Amino acid sequence: MGQLNLMVLSGDYSKIHAAAMVSMVAGSLGQTVDIFVSMEALPAFHRDQAVRDTIAMGPVARDVVEKANGNYLELFEQAKEMGEVHLYACGLVADVKEWSLDDLSPLFDDMMGVTGFLGKASEGTALTF
User: What's the CATH code, domain 3-128?
Assistant: First the structure.
């Protein structure tokens, strides 16, 4: 199976949750998944719950959280446990926010810029959330 490259840019809970589900399924099927988290999505991966709570949630996202115990961080963690799934935090956004990897979820394998990620993602399918 080929490489799957995800760019998670939106601060919308539904898109982040969808990226987590795609990552988990692809990883469980043996696909290598590289995920670059940038822009409005990066606060959703902060260690501080108050920062994570700033992401937008529509009515379906609220139902997923409430009724299906939806938690995108747990889904990304399961994806990493099931297969070759790697998460990379955007260095530019982290610099602007004055965050280090220590401020972010331990899910991240590293921090890098767009150029580094695009070099890594030169093959395979690319999706943006």
Answer: 3.40.1260.10
